[in-house]
Write a structure and sequence with these properties.
By secondary structure, the protein is an alpha+beta fold. It has three helices and six strands.
């Protein structure tokens, strides 16, 4: 099972301008939620508000990259999808993930989409 902090660290590796390790608090992470505003999440005690702040940050990232997302719940499992709109120049892609927490499902799907873009960019 992947934790919120592990996923945030992976997001920071893939998109450091939007998610980064905070340099002043040992073990702390900062996540960009909107232009110029950083939300802090610490590793010590993750609670519902950390998940809520993470979901807001991921939704902002998705919108700012002109991606589309869905979040659905079936039998206490959340399914998140992130996709690139169909354009004349490119093919759409779809990244999916599931989790019991909606924020984690959405973050996993977003990370999957970033990894897909990175693979596309690699010759």
């Amino acid at each position: 099972m992947t934790t919120l902090v592990e996923m945030l660290k992976r997001w920071a590796e893939l998109e450091p301008d939007r998610c980064s390790l905070h340099r002043h608090i040992i073990g702390g992470l900062h996540v960009l939620a909107s232009a110029g505003h950083w939300l802090g999440i610490t590793q010590d005690e993750i609670d519902w508000s950390d998940y809520a702040r993470t979901q807001v940050a991921v939704q902002y990232a998705i919108v700012s990259r002109n991606l589309q997302a869905t979040l659905e719940n079936t039998a206490h499992i959340w399914l998140a999808t992130v996709k690139r709109p169909i354009t004349a120049a490119g093919c759409p892609y779809l990244a999916c993930a599931t989790d019991t927490e909606p924020a984690l499902a959405l973050l996993k799907a977003y990370i999957n989409s970033l990894e897909h873009e990175q693979q596309e960019a690699t010759p």
